[in-house]
Design goal:
Layout: E1 4-8, H1 12-24, E2 35-40, H2 42-53, E3 62-66, H3 82-88, E4 90-94, E5 97-103, E6 108-113, E7 116-121, E8 127-133, E9 136-150, H4 158-161, E10 173-183, E11 190-193, E12 198-202, E13 210-214, E14 217-219, E15 222-229, E16 235-239, H5 245-251
Parallel strand pairs: 1-2, 2-3, 3-16
Antiparallel strand pairs: 4-16, 5-6, 5-15, 7-9, 7-13, 8-9, 8-12, 9-10, 10-11, 12-15, 13-14
Length: 257
């Protein structure tokens, strides 16, 4: 029999759901589970997945139920029929990005990102960044508020808000998207194969400091940032068959509100 673990957000709506779901099902500790059930919103799902990527939890499939706002990464909330829903669920695999930052002080820091790695200006002065893809310089000097690399799973989040493309989940692609670019003014960004590593070099980082952010994890005063896809550390999220992430991402291309 499949052993289910439970992770619950601190939000009151998730705590209310906890009392209901514990009456209907028996759970083991997440470390002992075959599948983890996550109650919360999209942010809580990301924190649960990051705990697995950073070794705080073992890598397990996650079935989320929405007790937040939008719930793009979650299934609908219902305490009934959970075992049957999980048995019929569609697994979706998401490969994370890995970010390696070298700071002005010479520190090297690594972190994973499920949605995107972004470089953001720290002050009122625009960032100046050069971009290389697979070892080839492609943008000598981007003058902008920043720039990001997004996965297909993250392409409907910050990337879309910045004017980047929506990528189908099955596409082996990454979106490279500028944030409020000033020069080159007409550069719309690029779509690149996901096996292409990307390198960002911050120009004059002492005068125009830049932060590097992997989802919600920020490293300030970045000098060089390398980003690549970690296909061998793919995460598995389970979805109800009529509620799967790949279909949601495809439909976002037609959203008008």
């Amino acid at each position: 029999m499949t052993k289910l673990g439970l992770m619950v957000s601190t939000k009151s709506s998730a705590r209310e759901a906890l009392r209901e779901i514990e009456k209907a099902h028996d759970f083991v500790r997440p470390e002992e589970a075959d599948i983890v059930v996550a109650l919360g919103g999209d942010g809580f799902m990301l924190r649960t997945l990051h705990a697995m990527l950073e070794g705080q939890l073992p890598l397990k499939p996650v079935f989320g139920m929405n007790r937040g706002t939008f719930g793009f990464l979650m299934n609908d909330w219902n305490a009934d029929g959970l075992v049957e829903r999980i048995a019929a669920a569609k697994p979706i695999q998401i490969a994370p990005l890995r970010m390696e930052v070298e700071t002005l002080k010479g520190e090297k820091i690594q972190r994973s990102a499920i949605n995107e790695v972004s470089l953001l200006r720290e002050t009122g002065r625009t960032a100046k960044i050069s971009i290389s893809v697979r070892g080839r310089l492609v943008i000598e000097k981007l003058v902008a508020d920043g720039v990001m690399v997004s996965t297909p799973a993250g392409s409907t989040a910050y990337n879309l808000s910045a004017g980047g493309p929506i990528l189908p989940l099955s596409a082996k692609l990454l979106a490279l998207t500028p944030i409020s670019p000033f020069r080159p003014r007409r550069w719309p960004g690029a779509i690149i194969p996901d096996d292409n590593p990307v390198r960002f070099d911050v120009l004059t980082p002492e005068d125009r400091p830049v932060s590097a952010v992997a989802d919600h994890f920020e490293v300030r005063d970045a000098k060089t940032v390398n980003v690549w896809l970690e296909r061998d550390r793919a995460l598995t999220i389970l979805f109800d068959p009529d509620h799967a992430l790949d279909e949601r991402i495809a439909l976002e291309q037609f959203a008008t509100s």
